[in-house]
Design a protein that fits this description.
413 residues; globular
Length: 413
């Protein structure tokens, strides 16, 4: 998992750098803007995530039951993906300028296949056999770098890069379909209305939390496109693109550490396991932030060229949002372990409200700084809300334990 992400980040940095050098600051900002809009609308398609579907697939004991789960999940995701596609098309036609509308229409096609075909990825994740998934992602990233380099040599337009990005999603979906065969093909699966309703009902509240977290991450680039001069916006978008790459270490760290420290460790219920996990995640966030901040003066010119001078400063300031961000992520695992699933959603909703308030507040003398400030505040509020819920849980558990101990002593006496 770590190798896959590291290779993807490296290939992504090369691709983004070549695109930035090809398009220039202004057009690169436009490209990053349409990708941010796509990212926000793609969150609609995440209505039924793996956290809801995976346990049901694990519990399915027979091949027939698994095919019912997969068929129902594929059907729900296909319907929701269609809704996300239509929503983005309507937004592109009604709200956006004509040059953005064409790009968004091309990228919107990826919404129709990404989440439905991620069902094949879920099959391998449940089996804990993701090697082929990692190879598919690495191969697609490598192929993308080659094609981006060709477009760079041809001095291609922003339209060509949008077509390439959309084609990548179709390539990955085809590879999932071709290589993951153990549960048959989608036409062999069976759609069950009752299971579809179950997925929607149980996935909706979790989806609100995922939607809120993704909105905190990207709404700054959607909103600030109209506030900042085009050249400054392009450099700001480039900087936040690097911060997004560093953010991927958070989910990877949670996936690697949570099973042993949070989910299986008996010391969790005393609070020691949760505290250890939180400290480790914050330390990882701090380490990544310091490393990126120190090397930014060397990394930014190497990737983007010398026209992105302000990008270095933005990266050095913005990268420290990872500390509260990783802390908030760690508390998601703690709250799930303590069966406070609704609190996960509520804490991200609270963070989003604060982030939007800061983002749209009429600041005087503040330019691009309001974006990182809004994200930092959103992560911090989410972390504090989760921390309060976790502390209350451990205090109440300890009180119940003390009461149980007194009852046992009384019985023994």
């Amino acid at each position: 998992m770590i190798s896959e992400k590291a290779v993807q980040i490296a290939f992504s940095a090369i691709s983004v750098g070549l695109i930035a050098r090809t398009l220039g600051v202004d057009a690169f900002g436009d490209f990053q803007y349409v990708l941010s809009v796509l990212f926000v609308f793609s969150s609609i398609a995440l209505l039924v995530g793996s956290e809801v579907a995976a346990p049901i697939l694990v519990e399915a004991s027979s091949r027939e039951q698994r095919r019912q789960v997969l068929g129902s999940l594929f059907g729900v995701r296909l319907i929701v993906a269609g809704a996300a596609f239509l929503a983005l098309i309507v937004w592109a036609v009604i709200v956006e300028q004509e040059n953005y509308s064409t790009l968004l229409a091309i990228l919107a096609l990826s919404l129709l296949i990404t989440e439905p075909f991620n069902v094949f990825r879920l099959i391998r994740e449940v089996q804990q056999n993701t090697r082929i998934i990692a190879w598919i992602r690495i191969a697609s990233s490598f192929l993308k770098v080659i094609l981006v380099y060709i477009l760079y040599r041809k001095e291609a337009t922003i339209l060509a890069f949008a077509l390439l990005y959309s084609a990548e999603y179709f390539f990955v979906a085809f590879c999932y379909f071709f290589f993951v065969r153990e549960e048959g093909r989608p036409w062999n699966w069976k759609v069950v209305a009752g299971k579809m309703i179950y997925f929607v009902r149980h996935g909706f509240f979790v989806w609100l939390g995922v939607l809120s977290m993704m909105a905190i991450q990207r709404l700054d680039r959607v909103a600030m496109e109209g506030w900042l001069p085009s050249e400054l916006y392009g450099q700001y978008a480039a900087a936040l693109n690097l911060v997004d790459s560093a953010w991927f270490f958070g989910p990877v760290a949670v996936a690697a550490l949570a099973p042993s420290i949070v989910y299986r460790d008996d010391s969790f219920f005393s609070g020691k396991g949760a505290l250890k996990f939180l400290a480790m995640m914050m330390l990882i966030g701090l380490s990544v932030a310091i490393a990126v901040s120190l090397f930014a003066p060397f990394i930014v010119p190497l990737i983007f060229g010398r026209n992105f001078q302000i990008t270095t400063t933005v990266v050095q300031v913005s990268i420290f949002i990872l500390i509260p961000g990783f802390a908030a992520l760690s508390l998601d695992a703690v709250l799930v372990k303590s069966k406070q699933h609704r609190m996960v959603t509520l804490k991200w909703l609270a963070g989003l409200i604060v982030a939007l308030s800061i983002l749209f507040m009429p600041w005087q003398g503040m330019s691009w700084e309001r974006g990182p400030l809004a994200i930092f505040a959103g992560y911090l509020v989410s972390f504090l809300c989760g921390l309060v819920a976790a502390v209350r849980y451990f205090v109440s558990s300890r009180n119940l334990g003390d009461a149980g101990g007194k009852d046992e002593n009384r019985t023994a006496l």
